[in-house]
Structures are given as structure tokens and as C-alpha cells.
């Protein structure tokens, strides 16, 4: 699922809660700044790549191939964020961050990369563009926050763009998984059948359907959580400003 | 200020000497929920909870979480009012813990489920496997053995829950039980599905594998039971106030206490690991792995509590795996 919700606990800590300075030390802060800058740059590369490919081809079709490598690299790189939480330099829950990053990585590798036939689908462009814009804003937000110079525009963007980008991303993801289903069933991709030595079976087709179904309870929860965060962060700041 | 009022005020004071006024506020909204005046100073929190229950029929004592500080520790039922840092007026904060269920009920629900579910699969009840396999039985003896082991494991647990265990907390939140039950029931269904499947493949090393695994399984079950009995006796001898940590006894199974703080978890992992080997079934191994992770977390917590509470706690002991973890 797309990551506007990722690190909401992080922002809750840095924006809403009064300055609890149990944050990272100087070295960790430097590392995190570098990490977030690199990620912002990476997703900007993907954004530029998409625009250039569109201008060159003149159509929305098949743009995935032009940004396939940087997408895989930078989205997979986000796994480091789980490590950051585990080590403690980022005050987010390991489980929550892990879940969000893994769902992204899953879509990138286990669906889009693995099922070649869906790579031409427009739904891929839909979620890739949603992710790209979201991540550029999110990583710049973290960069500025770490440097204690957060422009209101970036904060506003981070807490407003998700209103459109999140449903957009989810739609793209669901449509892509749905498009992959017939191919997975036909080829038996990643599936194990009985009988076998370890008495185990796994049907990837059913697993994908269950994944799609899991969006129904999860998406509204994350979306409304972000909306509540938005109210807290943006309205709180306005109160502060009027004082 | 008239003389009569002054007099009456003083008489009123002498009559109420030592009595405490208790107001119960909602921990989140700070709204006053209940006002109890003239409470005896030697009243316990448990009695306060009963009085509170009179005003709120739904909120039986087990559901009430009372604290002196909304962010602080919960008060115990046996805490006495006058021993707490309150003046003549006690302000207590209330939180609703949600519907509660007694521990015995919890265990019955958690254990009866897997017991019956496994049997449904063993006897190949309709709609699980294909139509021609309904009520057939497996040609492999290991499948029957596995059913016997699984069933005995849960019967043992039920016996322990009813007759052996003594619980320090009275209840558990309803939501937790539902979650636990779903987990245990779903997992046992999943592993029973494969073991009793018409296409089940028996272990690669045949009878030797099955028999050795069975032997270890039985030993671990006996071990686990011995530890539960030993822990129970410890509580019985000491009572709630006298805190001692468990020691090895004459029973050889309890000698694991030399090496480990929570040998009951060690034996439990051992039993499930041997069950995995006996059935050579990956879902069982996965269940064992997850159980191992959870029990390690519990064991580490327990080990820490013991180490902190008892200065003479044996250094050799590890939480769950001798010498390692």
C-alpha cells in the first residue's frame, strides 16, 4: 500500500508532540539527512524519467520500462527504513514501517517484476506516479525536519497531497494485482502443490486475491488515520500562528 | 459567622474524622463519574470498585482500571485507601478495560477449538477434502499417531487449565481472547489440513524418524507438565506475598531449572519441534517457529523479572534455551 501513511508516527512525534528530544545523535542525524536527500533525489530521477519518456513517446503507454531500474533500486532501498526503526534512530514502530515498506516491495517485485504481462498496463503508471510524487514530498519533508527548517509548504503538501495520491496509488495497485491474476493462475507462478516431501502447499493466485481483499479493512484505517494527523498537524500550527 | 454554624461544623468534623471522600473521574475526559463520601480509610480499592459498580451496572469490578495518576500505574484491588498517598479527598481516575472473561473460560475456548477442529480433519468431515475422500482414513500409521499426540496435548492443557494453574489476574479482555482463539483455531485447522490430507507424504526416514520424534514428544510433554506442577506448588507454598523463584526438585524433569528460567516454554518448543519432525510437515514447523518467538519474548521478560527481584538468582540460568538464549 502506498506510503503516505508511512512515518505518520514519526511526524506525530516531531510535529504534534512537544519537543521530546530523544531523537538521534549528531552522527545518526547526518546519516539520516544523507539518506533522505539521496532518496529524494532518486525519486526525482524517476519523476524526470517518466516525464521525459512521455514526451519522447507521446503516449502514456509502456512508461514503466524507462524507470524500471531506478524504481526497483530506490523502492527496495526503503527497506533501510525498517532498520532505522529497529536501531532506534527513527522513532517509528518497526512493525508498522516494515508492513508498509514490505507491501511496496511486494508490489514492485512479486507482482510487477514477476508478471511481465502487466508491465504494459496503465494501472502500473497510476501507482508509480502516485508513489513518485508521495515519496518526493515525504523524503524532502524528513530532510527539512531533520535540519529543523521545515517550510510550511512542504508540511502542507505532505499532509494534503495524500488525499488524492493515496486513493490513486491504491487503485493502481489493486488494478495491477487484478490484471496479474489470470497469468498467475495459468503459469502456477510461485505456487507449490501437493503431494510433496514437506506436506505444504501454496497457491499464489489465492494469496493475491486475499491481498486484494485485505485492502478493504486496511485502506480506510490508514487513510482516516492520515486525515486525523492532518487535522492535528495543520490546525495545531494555525493555532500556534495566531497566538 | 454565627455560633451555631461554627459548633455544627465542628461536630460534623469530629463525626467524620479519618473518613475519606473519594471522587472517581474519567481518565480521559476528567468528568466526574462517581462521588463517594464518608469512605472508611481502611477500605480497599476492591471495595471502591464494588461501590462504583453499584452506580454503573455494566462496569463490573474486573472491567475497572483505577489509578491515582491518569498516566500512572493501576491500583491493586487489595491496596488500602489510607496507605495510599491521598489526603482527605481521594481523586481516582477510571478507565474501562472492556468486557472481561475469566482465565478458565479463556483457556477452555483456546484449547477446545483446536482439539475438535483437528478431529474434524482427521475423520475427513465433508466439504474439506474432495467428495470421494469423505470419512475415509489415511493408510499411514503416523497420521493416526499425530492425531493422538495433538489430541493428548490439548487434553493435557485443558486438565492443567482446570486443575493445576493458579492465576494471579482474574480476567483477560474479550478482544484478546477473540484474537488468540482465531490464531490457535486457524493454525490448527491449517496444519490438520495437511497432515490428514489424502495426498499426505509420510516422513522421509520412515518409522525411525517417527519413533524417535514421538519419544522426544512424550518426554517434552511430561517435562512441561512437571514444570507446571512445580510452579503451582511454589505458589501454593508461598502464597501471593511470599515471592520465591522456582528450584529443581526431585523430579528429573525439573532439573532443567538449573539451566533455564522457563523450562515449561523450553519443553513446549521441544514438543512442537518433535511433532514437526514426526509429521514432516512445514506448516507445523512454521507454527513451532512462531510459538518459539512468542515464548522467547515471554521467557526473557520472566527472566528479567526474576533477576531484578532476587539478588541470589543463579547466574547460569538462561531464559529459554540452556546456555544460549
TrEMBL record, chain A:
One of its GO terms (cellular component) is endoplasmic reticulum membrane. InterPro entries: Tyr_Pase-like_PTPLA (IPR007482). Pathway: Lipid metabolism; fatty acid biosynthesis. One of its GO terms (biological process) is sphingolipid biosynthetic process. Residues 1-20 are annotated as: Disordered. Keywords: Endoplasmic reticulum, Fatty acid biosynthesis, Fatty acid metabolism, Lipid biosynthesis, Lipid metabolism, Lyase, Membrane, Transmembrane, Transmembrane helix. GO terms for molecular function: very-long-chain (3R)-3-hydroxyacyl-CoA dehydratase activity. The chain crosses the membrane at residues 32-55, 76-103, 159-184, 204-224. Pfam families: PTPLA. Its EC number is 4.2.1.134. It catalyses: (3R)-hydroxyhexadecanoyl-CoA = (2E)-hexadecenoyl-CoA + H2O; a very-long-chain (3R)-3-hydroxyacyl-CoA = a very-long-chain (2E)-enoyl-CoA + H2O. It is a multi-pass membrane protein. It is found in: Endoplasmic reticulum membrane; Membrane. Its main location: endoplasmic reticulum. Catalyzes the third of the four reactions of the long-chain fatty acids elongation cycle. This endoplasmic reticulum-bound enzymatic process, allows the addition of two carbons to the chain of long- and very long-chain fatty acids/VLCFAs per cycle. This enzyme catalyzes the dehydration of the 3-hydroxyacyl-CoA intermediate into trans-2,3-enoyl-CoA, within each cycle of fatty acid elongation. Thereby, it participates to the production of VLCFAs of different chain lengths that are involved in multiple biological processes as precursors of membrane lipids and lipid mediators. Belongs to the very long-chain fatty acids dehydratase HACD family. This is Very-long-chain (3R)-3-hydroxyacyl-CoA dehydratase. It comes from Oncorhynchus tshawytscha. The gene is HACD2.
UniProtKB/TrEMBL annotation, chain B:
The keyword Lipid metabolism applies. Its EC number is 1.3.1.93. It catalyses: (2E,7Z,10Z,13Z,16Z,19Z)-docosahexaenoyl-CoA + NADPH + H(+) = (7Z,10Z,13Z,16Z,19Z)-docosapentaenoyl-CoA + NADP(+); a very-long-chain 2,3-saturated fatty acyl-CoA + NADP(+) = a very-long-chain (2E)-enoyl-CoA + NADPH + H(+); (2E)-hexadecenoyl-CoA + NADPH + H(+) = hexadecanoyl-CoA + NADP(+); octadecanoyl-CoA + NADP(+) = (2E)-octadecenoyl-CoA + NADPH + H(+). GO terms for cellular component: endoplasmic reticulum membrane. Residues 171-324 form the 3-oxo-5-alpha-steroid 4-dehydrogenase C-terminal domain. Gene3D superfamilies: Phosphatidylinositol 3-kinase Catalytic Subunit, Chain A, domain 1. It is a multi-pass membrane protein. The keyword Transmembrane applies. Residues 21-96 form the TECR-like N-terminal domain. It is found in: Endoplasmic reticulum membrane. One of its GO terms (molecular function) is very-long-chain enoyl-CoA reductase activity. Keywords: Acetylation, Endoplasmic reticulum, Fatty acid biosynthesis, Fatty acid metabolism, Lipid biosynthesis, Lipid metabolism, Membrane, NADP, Oxidoreductase, Phosphoprotein, Transmembrane, Transmembrane helix. It comes from the Eukaryota. The chain crosses the membrane at residues 101-123, 182-200, 212-231, 252-267, 273-298. It is an enzyme of class 1 (oxidoreductase). One of its GO terms (biological process) is very long-chain fatty acid biosynthetic process. Pathway: Sphingolipid metabolism; Lipid metabolism; fatty acid biosynthesis; Lipid metabolism; sphingolipid metabolism. Belongs to the steroid 5-alpha reductase family. Involved in both the production of very long-chain fatty acids for sphingolipid synthesis and the degradation of the sphingosine moiety in sphingolipids through the sphingosine 1-phosphate metabolic pathway. Catalyzes the last of the four reactions of the long-chain fatty acids elongation cycle. This endoplasmic reticulum-bound enzymatic process, allows the addition of 2 carbons to the chain of long- and very long-chain fatty acids/VLCFAs per cycle. This is Very-long-chain enoyl-CoA reductase. The lineage of its organism: Eukaryota, Metazoa, Chordata, Craniata, Vertebrata. The gene is LOC112215531.
Amino acid at each position: 500500500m502506498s506510503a503516505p501513511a508511512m512515518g505518520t508516527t514519526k511526524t506525530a512525534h516531531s510535529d504534534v508532540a512537544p519537543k521530546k528530544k530523544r531523537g538521534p545523535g549528531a552522527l545518526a542525524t547526518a546519516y539520516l539527512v544523507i539518506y533522505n536527500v539521496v532518496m529524494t533525489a532518486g525519486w526525482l530521477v524517476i519523476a524526470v524519467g517518466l516525464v521525459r519518456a512521455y514526451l519522447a513517446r507521446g503516449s502514456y503507454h509502456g512508461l514503466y520500462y524507462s524507470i524500471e531500474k531506478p524504481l526497483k533500486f530506490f523502492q527496495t532501498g526503503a527497506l533501510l527504513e525498517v532498520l532505522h526503526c529497529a536501531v532506534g534512530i527513527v522513532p517509528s514502530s518497526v512493525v508498522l514501517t516494515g508492513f508498509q515498506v514490505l507491501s511496496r516491495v511486494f508490489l514492485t517485485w512479486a507482482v510487477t517484476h514477476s508478471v511481465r504481462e502487466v508491465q504494459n498496463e496503465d494501472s502500473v503508471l497510476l501507482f508509480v506516479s502516485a508513489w513518485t510524487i508521495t515519496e518526493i514530498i515525504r523524503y524532502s519533508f524528513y530532510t527539512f525536519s531533520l535540519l529543523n527548517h521545515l517550510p510550511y509548504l512542504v508540511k502542507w503538501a505532505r499532509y494534503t497531497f495524500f488525499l488524492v495520491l493515496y486513493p490513486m496509488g491504491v487503485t493502481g495497485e489493486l488494478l495491477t494485482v487484478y490484471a496479474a491474476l489470470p497469468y498467475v493462475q495459468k503459469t502456477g507462478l510461485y505456487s507449490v502443490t501437493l503431494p510433496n516431501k514437506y506436506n505444504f502447499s501454496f497457491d499464489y493466485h489465492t494469496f493475491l486475491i486475499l491481498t486484494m481483499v485485505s485492502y478493504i479493512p486496511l485502506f480506510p484505517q490508514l487513510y482516516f488515520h492520515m486525515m486525523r494527523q492532518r487535522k492535528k498537524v495543520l490546525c495545531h500550527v494555525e493555532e500556534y500562528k495566531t497566538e | 459567622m454565627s455560633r451555631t454554624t461554627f459548633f455544627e461544623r465542628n461536630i460534623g468534623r469530629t463525626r467524620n474524622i479519618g473518613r475519606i471522600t473519594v471522587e472517581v473521574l474519567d481518565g480521559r475526559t476528567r468528568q466526574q463519574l462517581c462521588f463517594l463520601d464518608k469512605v472508611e480509610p481502611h477500605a480497599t480499592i476492591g471495595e471502591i470498585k464494588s461501590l462504583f459498580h453499584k452506580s454503573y451496572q455494566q462496569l463490573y469490578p474486573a472491567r475497572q482500571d483505577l489509578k491515582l495518576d491518569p498516566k500512572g500505574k493501576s491500583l491493586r484491588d487489595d491496596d488500602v485507601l489510607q496507605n495510599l498517598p491521598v489526603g482527605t479527598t481521594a481523586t481516582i481516575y477510571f478507565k474501562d478495560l472492556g468486557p472481561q472473561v475469566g482465565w478458565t473460560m479463556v483457556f477452555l475456548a483456546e484449547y477446545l477449538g483446536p482439539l475438535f477442529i483437528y478431529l474434524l480433519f482427521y475423520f475427513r468431515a465433508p466439504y474439506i477434502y474432495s467428495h470421494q475422500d469423505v470419512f475415509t482414513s489415511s493408510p499411514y500409521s503416523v497420521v493416526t499417531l499425530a492425531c493422538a499426540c495433538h489430541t493428548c496435548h490439548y487434553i493435557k492443557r485443558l486438565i492443567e487449565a482446570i486443575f493445576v494453574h493458579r492465576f494471579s489476574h482474574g480476567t483477560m479482555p474479550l478482544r484478546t481472547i477473540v484474537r488468540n482463539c482465531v490464531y490457535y483455531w486457524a493454525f490448527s485447522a491449517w496444519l490438520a489440513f495437511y497432515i490428514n490430507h489424502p495426498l499426505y507424504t509420510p516422513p522421509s526416514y520412515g518409522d525411525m524418524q517417527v519413533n524417535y520424534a514421538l519419544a522426544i514428544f512424550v518426554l517434552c510433554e511430561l517435562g512441561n507438565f512437571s514444570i507446571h506442577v512445580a510452579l503451582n506448588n511454589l505458589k501454593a507454598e508461598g502464597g501471593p506475598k511470599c515471592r520465591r523463584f522456582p528450584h529443581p526438585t526431585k523430579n528429573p524433569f525439573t532439573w532443567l531449572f538449573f539451566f533455564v528460567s522457563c523450562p515449561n516454554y523450553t519443553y513446549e518448543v521441544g514438543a512442537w519441534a518433535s511433532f514437526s519432525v514426526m509429521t514432516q510437515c512445514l506448516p507445523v514447523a512454521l507454527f513451532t517457529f512462531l510459538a518459539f518467538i512468542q515464548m522467547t519474548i515471554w521467557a526473557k521478560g520472566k527472566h528479567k523479572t526474576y533477576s531484578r527481584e532476587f539478588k541470589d538468582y543463579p547466574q547460569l540460568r538462561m531464559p529459554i534455551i540452556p546456555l544460549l538464549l
